[in-house]
What does this fold into?
Amino acid sequence: MVPDDELAVFCLSFCTAVTRHHVGEDREVFPVLAARHPELRSFLDALQRDHVVIASILGRLNDLVGDSVKLGQELDGLAAVLETHFIGEEKRLAGVLNALDPSVGLTPLTEAVEFR
It folds into this structure.
C-alpha cells in the first residue's frame, strides 16, 4: 500500500501534468489541426469539452480527500472519461499527427504534446 503522502504527491503531479497537457492541446495543437484538417473540427470541439469535464473532476478531487466513497466515485468517473478520451484521440488523431511534417512550423505543436 502506498502511504497517503506519496499518493497525494503523485496525484498532484498527475493532475498538474494532465492539466498542462490539455491546455497545450487547446491553445496550440487543436487550432493547428483544425486549420489543416477542417473535417476534424467537431471532433476537436468534443475533445475540448472533455478537457472541461476532466478539469472539473480534477478540481474536485482535493476537496474529497476525506470522503473515500465520493473520492472513489470521482476517480471512477475520471478514469472513464480519460479512457474514452484517449481512445478517441488515438483513433482519430494518431494518423494525422504522424503525417505532419515537423519542419513546417510545428514547434508549438510538438511542445504541447510532449507530455505523451
Observations:
- The mean pLDDT is 84.
- The helical segments are 4-36, 41-61, 68-99, 107-112.
- The chain is about 80% helix and 0% strand.
- The chain has one domain: 4-112.
